[in-house]
């Protein structure tokens, strides 16, 4: 699979997993908007955090699903 696609999808899968796990302990009405917004925010924060940490520790690039730089 293309590294660009993997590196785009992985943070949002992580965001969705964290959002759903967090909602288990919170009694809120199920809301697609809230779940979607939290998924995007958590996914974006995850991606930025991994990219910044990977500048110091390159092995952390694997947390994005691929260490290969995307080619376009």
Explain this structure.
- By secondary structure, the protein is mostly helical.
- The chain has one domain (3-64).
- It is 65% helix and 0% strand.
- The longest helix has 25 residues, at 32-56.
- The radius of gyration is 14 Å and the shape is elongated.
- It starts with a helix and ends in a 16-residue tail after the last helix.
Q: Whole-number radius of gyration?
A: 14 Å
Net shape: elongated
Helix content: 55-70%
Strand content: under 5%
Question: What is the number of E strands?
Answer: 0
Instruction: Return residue spans where pLDDT drops below 50 for at least 5 consecutive residues.
Output: none
How confident is the prediction overall: mean pLDDT? 78
Count of all domains: 1
Distance between the termini: 13 Å
Largest sheet: none
In DSSP terms (H or I, runs of 4 or more residues), the helix count works out at 2
* SSE order: HH
The secondary-structure class comes to mainly alpha
Structure characteristics:
single chain, 72 residues, mainly alpha, 2 helices, elongated
Strand-helix topology:
Elements: H1 3-24, H2 32-56
Helix pairs in contact: 1-2
Outline of the structure:
The protein is built from two helices and no strands.
């Amino acid at each position: 699979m293309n590294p660009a696609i993997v590196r785009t999808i992985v943070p949002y899968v992580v965001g969705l997993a964290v959002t759903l796990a967090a909602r288990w302990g919170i009694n809120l009405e199920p809301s697609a908007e809230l779940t979607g917004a939290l998924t995007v925010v958590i996914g974006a924060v995850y991606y930025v955090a991994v990219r910044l940490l990977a500048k110091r520790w390159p092995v952390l690039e694997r947390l994005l699903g691929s260490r290969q730089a995307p080619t376009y």
